[in-house]
Amino acid sequence: MPEESASNLENTMSADDLDLRSQRLLKADRMKENGMSPYGHNRISGLSSMNSVKEAFAALPEGSEEKLNFRVAGRMMARRIMGKSLFANLKDQGGNLQLYVQKNIVGDENYDLFKDLDIGDILSAQGYAFRTRTGEISLHVQSFELLAKGIRSLPEKYHGLKDTEQRYRQRYVDLIINDEVRRCFEMRSRIISGIRRYLDSKGFMEVETPMMQSLAGGAAARPFKTFYNALGCQMYLRIAPELYLKRLLVGGFEKVYEIGRNFRNEGMDRRHNPEFTGLEIYQAYSDCRGMMELIEDLITTVAQETAGTLTFTAADSHQVNLTRPWRRVPYQDLIREKMGQDWFSLPLASQREKALALGLNIPEGMQESDITHEIYDKCIESTLIQPTFVTRLPAFLVPLAKRCPDDPNLVDVYELIINGQELSPGYSELNDPMEQRSRFDAQAIGRDDLEGEVDRIDEDFLTALEYGMPPAGGLGLGIDRVVMLLTGAESIRDVILFPQMRPQK
């Protein structure tokens, strides 16, 4: 073994694990010397799943002596040897099946080979199903083949990976050992499939827009930067697909959606990952209320289809009930409930004093609108456990939405809060190109990114608006947060297969 490679192994493995790894490598070498491949030879055809074997055998009439033959493949998770016979537990994606191996059936050499296999090895086995004296449906093995030798040993006795960081770094081991983790990601897949099914059934068209963009628009966030060698220019990983999807409304596609990755070069915590999956939907001739109806129906439909219930226990033990209709409440009403009916008529000094009394950090010079939003952000949002549409937000927060007709200081939007976190924003989309330019200009004043580059306005998007974009409703949905809600996951990292991690030294 090269010196550097050995050094790296010593840094990442215990002495016991290193010894076990060496033993398994020797076994693999012996197999090769004897003309056997420790990694299989050909495609394995005619495979049955472990669950289908059990179902087919259980469906036989009582007292039937018919022998049903199957070929299965999976990872060996347990084994017990009893002289001239042994039992092993084989696991595939859907379940487990007990194997029964007899020396007089498979032969002395093959029996010794099976005894020399290790927990974690992947193999195929062929035989007939039967029920043991204890009533367990099993496979009486007639032949088997080693398909992949496990060189590293699995964590012992199904305890799994106890170190959370190691679980995220070695998700493949986490999936092998922890069935709950596997079920979570199977649930995630069903949720995304359910979202697509729902939207397709409503006449929406799925589209794909660029993930590398010359301007990072559609949200207020710091982007990841890269350089496009072929074009000789700086590019950004998208923070949102919004502006491209609206271009499609201009082009005549009236109902579009996209499910894809977004990237925001910001902090990481229990609810945030810099690379996340989002859904965005745009519908011509709709508005904010149409989007509320759409997202309410979408989430409840998908929840019922995938989980079979509308009541969930979140990781913090909150009981969340998704039964419709969901509460709708204006932003300012929530502020008044918390701070008093006279809040918006108080002088700045009084607002500051009351906010400081809540323990908030209110720097000198913070304006009324910012103090108000700090109260909402830190003291109100987290208390909204049941589904709540917070509507009529301050216009400065949302530069891409239409103003409310009765109050130009507010915009016709919602934020859907469930279990204290935002799952979905939705707008009556701004389609006036002159006002959109004015909003962009106001947003860009004094706005620098952390490297000193002033935010630029997407002139091509404004050009598209000048061709005419129909009135429309639009919404976004955090897929990862929906999965957290429906699975009771504690952290967003628990629902992302390979979350971002600091590189190991």
> What structural class do you assign from the helix and strand content?
alpha+beta
How far apart lie the N and C ends? 21 Å
Task: Provide the domain count.
Answer: 3
Question: What is the approximate shape?
Answer: elongated
Number of β-strand runs: 19
Q: Helical amount among residues, as a percent range?
A: 25-40%
The CATH level-2 architecture of the largest domain is identified as 2-Layer Sandwich
Largest sheet composition: 9 strands, mixed
> Uncertain regions: pLDDT < 50 for 5+ in a row?
450-454
CATH class of the largest domain: Alpha Beta
CATH topology of the largest domain: BirA Bifunctional Protein, domain 2
CATH homology superfamily of the largest domain: Bira Bifunctional Protein, Domain 2
DSSP helical segment count:
16
Mean pLDDT comes to 92
**Could you tell me the strand content as a percent range?**
25-35%
